[in-house]
Specification:
2 copies of one chain form a homodimer.
Chain A: H1 25-33, E1 39-41, E2 46-48, E3 56-62, E4 65-70, E5 76-82, E6 87-88, E7 102-105, E8 109-115, H2 116-124, H3 130-153, H4 156-171, E9 172-174, E10 179-181, H5 187-194, H6 198-210, E11 214-217, E12 220-223, H7 226-233
Antiparallel strand pairs in A: 1-8, 2-7, 3-6, 3-8, 4-5, 4-7, 9-10, 10-12, 11-12
Helix pairs in contact in A: 4-5, 4-7, 5-6
Chain lengths: 235, 235
């Protein structure tokens, strides 16, 4: 593409050049948001709860956001962790009036809120962004399918290895020791991501640490040997 | 909407009339396919396998198609059962070259195959269909999320009740006795839909039959008391 522009959705490959003549969704959203003030959320602050009436699309300027499902008895499953330049709440674009998931800031974050009618007008004026938006929905579907596949077919150590590989691919920062997950994550949060109990997740993490595959201290995780982690992820 | 047109995606509510001035995706696809000959698949025939290179979008003229994930050891999880007027293989629109799922005809079916480049041209000439297509992807994401939610938080009888409610809502036919699932479904296929063993699914089905909530004979299932099934689905 022209001018080294970045695309919002990993894995997005423009297939139809006629539909892809303009700038990328991320660039256009940055332009749109220039005139807006992002809201500041503190660590742990709720952006929306399941059941909330909320007609906005959110665009993350800085920070990390957890999307999770909470069941009636308070058990939690984390579906995704999103970072800078990513969108959430996009289901309001297709007529979903109430939130089905909860969104929570995992660290201090600055987030733009765009009314869905405004977002749709913005899209209408930039039809070349459509495919990229469709690709976003497609990618979200695949991510959830992979999680489902893990839950049905994989044991906890395998699920943990696969989740850690996803985290370093989406939120990894290269350091001298290896690839570090670039935000603080508790064992409970990791457990919620793989649909497991905290205790089992801690044991599986300790095993990986003993084998020299990762290092962990104070909610920081550094993957030192991604190759061996990959082997563990498809036993 | 005008002229009583039908929309392909349940739950789709046009939010932005400016984007929704034309006919529906289903109507337009029917027009597009008028000049094409659908391929005939026999019961059990594979449409595509995971790993296949396949650049098409499929549009079901008649029949039922199962979308499933198979793991290396042959265990299966059915993600969805699609019927007349529904689309599959839409991930080829966003650059996915290899199939991740398997698609199999559950009964004799006639299915149109549309090259993805052609489908994208078709969309480009009908920009008002975009939102409906985005809604399709959104709906698929929600369906998978609900399945994930079931697998993590619900026991097998609850999962079965929820699955049966989905089946009669999407594939139900009203009869004098109740709502019948309009295709033959084996206990194994139901088990694959709820991520359970066949034996446990049969016991849970038998319990519902004894309680007078459903009738089953020869792969046919009739839900006689949807209200009580609903109670069972949120215990």
């Amino acid at each position: 593409m022209q001018n080294g522009q970045t695309y919002l959705w990993k894995g997005f490959r423009p297939m139809n050049e006629r539909l892809r003549k303009g700038t990328s969704l991320k660039d256009e959203l940055n332009n749109l948001c220039e005139s807006l003030t992002p809201k500041r959320y503190t660590k742990g602050e709720i952006i929306y709860q399941a059941g909330d009436l909320d007609d906005s699309v959110y665009f993350i300027k800085t920070g990390k956001v957890k999307l999770a499902y909470l069941d009636e008895s308070g058990r939690k499953l984390t579906l995704n962790i999103l970072g800078e330049g990513e969108i959430l709440g996009e289901m309001s674009l297709v007529g979903e009036k109430r939130r089905e998931l909860m969104a929570q800031a995992l660290q201090e974050s600055r987030i733009y809120s765009i009314n869905s009618a405004r977002f749709l007008n913005f899209l209408e004026e930039r039809p070349w962004l459509t495919l990229e938006l469709i690709a976003l929905f497609g990618q979200r579907t695949r991510e959830i399918e992979h999680k489902l596949e893990d839950l049905v077919f994989k044991d906890i150590p395998t699920r943990l290895s696969r989740q850690l590989l996803r985290l370093i691919s989406e939120h990894g920062e290269e350091t001298a020791e290896g690839t570090e997950i670039d935000f603080k994550i508790t064992h409970k949060e990791l457990a919620d991501l793989i649909g497991s109990a905290r205790e089992n997740t801690t044991s599986a993490l300790n095993r990986l640490a003993r084998e020299g595959i990762l290092d962990k201290h104070r909610y920081r995780i550094i993957v030192k040997d991604a190759e061996r982690l990959k082997e563990k992820s498809s036993p």
